[in-house]
Amino acid sequence: MPSPRYFLRHFVPFTGYPYTGAPSACNLCGSHESVTVAETDRRLKTLRSIACAECGLIRTDPMPTPAELAEYYATAYRADYQLAFAGGPPRAHLNRSAREATFRAGLLAPKLVPGARVLDFGCGSGEFLAAARARGCEAIGVEPGRDYAAYARKQHGVEVLDDAEDGRFPAGHFDVISTHHVLEHLRDPADVMERLARWLKPDGVLYAAVPNMAATGKPPHERFHFAHVHGFVRDTLDLTARRAGMVPDTAYWREDTTVVYRKTDAPVGRIAAPGLAQRLSEELKPMPAGAYLASGAWIWPMVRRNAKAVRDTFVSK
Ligand SMILES: [Zn+2]
């Protein structure tokens, strides 16, 4: 059981998180050079984010250790994002997840044919697996969040693994792999992307979606979040796929950092994005707190967030 103090330290603004972490090399290109892009996160707590000077991938610095992340997920994350979990995932989450799964299944429809093998890596409460199975696919999920995994098994009757090491599936096994808002939570997203690519058939497709750190319409600090130890933009998501031997499949609609990739034999080349880190440090430059309050820029996100919560709670799927 974490101490109340550990718990509180996650919520008091203008203080740091209760973790020590360790400096890390860029998981995408291996470089140690970086540019600082933020010192604060969305709840105005102290949290340093850096962009790799070589490839532009954003990461938390120092990087939380696996044990520190596990402790965070077991305590503060749950209280914060899965409040009222006792009776299963909150209705707001399920409604949102069902809408998203319908969209994802529609996008991948040409590949979701009877008999196709589908993996949802980070399947949450299992709505996409259920949608794939409804189309006749053999669908399996991986989900480390125990409550979500249990819910997916019980509610949708789908097979969900707690984790999947490299040897868990043979190379070239799946027709479709999807990973929705998962990579930003991982300490080793580029390595995981390579593992997913290995499990994919030569003509398979990989759907990957992450938040875009450079998306417009959000005050910069709102993009940073302790649970997101990596931050992507279009270029770095594509580079992560490129390192794993994949390129965007132009047969599929792409929205920003929601992309369907296919395999390619073209040589990988240098993993770099000259100038990207500098550009991100400019784009993500925080507004001083006083100016931010005075600008009123916080009003619209607050209204929108509340409206979304109301909609997710009362509009059933
Ligand atoms: Zn890098």
Automatic annotation (TrEMBL):
Cell division listed as a keyword: no
InterPro entries: SAM-dependent_MTases_sf
SUPFAM superfamilies the UniProt entry points to: S-adenosyl-L-methionine-dependent methyltransferases
UniProt keyword Manganese, yes or no: no
Annotated Pfam families: Methyltransf_23
The organism's place on the tree of life at top rank: Bacteria
Keywords: Ubiquinone
Name of this protein: Ubiquinone biosynthesis O-methyltransferase, mitochondrial
Organism listed in the record: Methylobacterium trifolii
Lineage: Bacteria, Pseudomonadati, Pseudomonadota, Alphaproteobacteria, Hyphomicrobiales
Gene: COQ3_1
